[in-house]
Amino acid sequence: MFSRLITVSQPRPSLQPSTRRRSQLVHVLSGLMTFIRHCGYHARTAMLFTASDLKTILLPISAFACATAPLCSFDRLLRALIWTWIHQFMCNVSNQARTRLEDAVNKPWRPLPAGRITERQAFVLRWVTVAAAFGCSALHGGDLMLTTLGLLLTTFAYDELGLAGHLIGKSICNIGGYTTLEIGATKLMGATRDLDNVSATAVCISGALICTTIQAQDFADVEGDAILGRKTFPIYAPEFSRIATVTAISVWSLFLASFWGIGSVCGAIFVVFGSFVGSRFYSLRGPDDDELSYVLYNVSKICTIMLVARSTLRALPQVWLTMVHIMPNHARTGLFTF
């Protein structure tokens, strides 16, 4: 006769309430830390998309709007900065989604060559940023949405239609990109959304200046542009493009100092600095030298903005491209009368 041994499982002791709460808290904190790490990673990726153009787009555009509008409150400054950065982000993602090979040579730290994002993800993000830009503009009115549309069409022509590789087409797109950003930021910074004669004149001058000097951004990228088969001015005419740049910057410096009626001391400083920046493009031709020259070109654009401030409202005074953008401020405040 066989006997069967039957074992009865004993119930497992339940966790104490305090232990269970501690376990849940650890789980929540772990998930929160993971979420924060992911957010930090994606925020850094977004900043890497825009990093190289903060000094060439965000800074001069913001300085232009501050001086030309002129700036009337900190709240409007913050709104304009956010609006400008989101639209710059849209342009940067659209451009960099197609320039991985070029960036691997010129800027390997950018998100695509650094492996932080795939090309497929970048193309999806490109249209997500379009929606974000329109959403941001919609919060401020229909006129800003028209500005976003203008920038989108310019970006589409530059990247999707291939005008980035066309000598004249690239200049036209650069004019459209800069002026639409300037119009939008100026509308947000000022007490009124209408552009007066000073603001409209400053935007037109900025467009003409960009048309004749924008090749300054291409000297440092000749190697990468050649890999992509682009026909930029420095590639098409290596020597003449440098002569044209130093000439244009010097002539613009003289013209703007006279046009905005700044004082003799400020005018002399601006003209000398403009001539110095232009001469760097001609005499110093290494990639690092060209990169520094382009930074100086953009820093100096701020001063051109400030010269607009003399004729109407008082503006808050905000080193060739950024100096240029500050000059309109002189038309309102007489900031540079000495």
Shape: globular
The structure class reads mainly alpha
The overall pLDDT average reads 82
Q: What profile does the largest beta sheet have? A: none
Helix content: over 70%
CATH architecture verdict: Orthogonal Bundle
- Taken as a percent bin, the fraction of beta residues is under 5%
| Helix and strand sequence | HHHHHHHHHHHHHHH
Q: How many structural domains does the protein architecture include?
A: 1
Report the count of strand segments: 0
Using the coordinates shown, work out and report the CATH topology.
Answer: Farnesyl Diphosphate Synthase
Transmembrane segments: 251-274
Subcellular location: Membrane
Pfam families: UbiA
Protein name: UbiA prenyltransferase family-domain-containing protein
Quick overview:
The protein is an all-alpha fold and 338 residues long.
Notes on the protein architecture:
With 338 residues, the chain is an all-alpha fold. The chain has a single domain (44-333), classed as Farnesyl Diphosphate Synthase (Orthogonal Bundle), CATH 1.10.600. The chain is 70% helix and 0% strand. Helix 2 runs parallel beside helix 13. The radius of gyration is 26 Å and the shape is globular.
